[in-house]
Amino acid sequence: MKNTPLKYRLNVIGGGLIIFVCLRLYLPQLARMAGLGANFNIWLLVCMATLVLACILPIAFIERMCDFHPMLFKKQLPQTQDLLMVMGSMFIFTALAMVNSILVTLLGKVGIVFPAQTLEPINSTLTLVLYFVYSAVIPAIFEELFMRGIVLNLLLPNGRRFAVITSALIFTVMHTQVQSFIPVFGAGIVLACIYLYTDNIYVSMLLHFVNNAYSFIILYMQQRVNGISAMGFASFVMAVIIVGGGCSLWWMKKNGITLFESLQKSGKNSKVSKIFTCPIMVLGLLCCLMSVFAQLYADLAV
Question: Can you give the residue range of the structural domain that contains 269?
Fold first, then answer.
């Protein structure tokens, strides 16, 4: 794999992206045509299966085309130090979300309004469990296997810095919320760095899960509790993350833990611009961007 030209590997990743986008776009449409969208619980199961397939099939394609089979589960479960790094990373995620919120508000002042993120009505415990698994558990496992387990590792021979930034860019365009570009790209950077620092995919999975679970709980509370109570709950959770995350970052600095050492300019790194010289990769990125704007158009049309 290390002797495989970078251009070939990038084109293979682009092919994986095309598979991902096609499955994410067309499987739900076929399911709706088959009448599976009538029951929301069934629809959540369809969405889960779609996301799993959209990650697993590109992984299988990339591994086969590159003869690449990384050992991802060779380490033990997250330890205390890893949990502190996860908490510190949540502080960073919260800061990025606040910056993004300010930017979206400013855009709203000039007439560029994005739809607020909400959940579909949750009327039963089963729906709540299925929705939580779909929103937090499935992405944490399968998106991490795809992005950090395969894509990031496949790019590492050309430099850790190159691999982190490129995988974060791909991770960003895979998501369909253009108004969340800053926090998603930042999350891609942090997830890649924490995976490389710990050499343990369980840690990046845990961080991904905690972030998605936090977002889900906040949105759910906004649905169930209105007004000041919902704002108070969100403020309390955010305060816990800020205080706990701030203390964790202080502990990391005191113990010489440099989470972002992969971004330092050391060793030989390829230029990120090389991804735009690979036609299939460019096509894959364009397919992702088309799905982003299609989703944005659908949201604005509602």
Answer: 6-301
Residue 155 in contact with residue 75, Cβ under 8 Å? no
Alpha carbon distances (Å) from 145 to 9, 54, 210: 17, 12, 16
Q: Quickly count: other Cβ atoms within 10 Å of residue 61's Cβ.
A: 18
CB 147 within 8 A of CB 165: no
Question: Mean pLDDT throughout 246-251?
Answer: 92
CB atoms within 10 A of CB 135: 21
Alpha carbon distance 200, 214 (integer Å): 22
Model confidence, pTM: 0.93
In a domain? residue 1: no
Helix/strand/coil for 192: helix
Residue 139 DSSP label = I
Dist. CA 202–CA 219, nearest whole Å: 26
Cα–Cα dist 267/45, whole Å: 45
Establish if 241 belongs to a structural domain: yes
List, for residues 277-287, the tens digit of each pLDDT value. 999 999 998 88
**Of 160, 171, 176, whose CA–CA distance to 266 is shortest?**
160
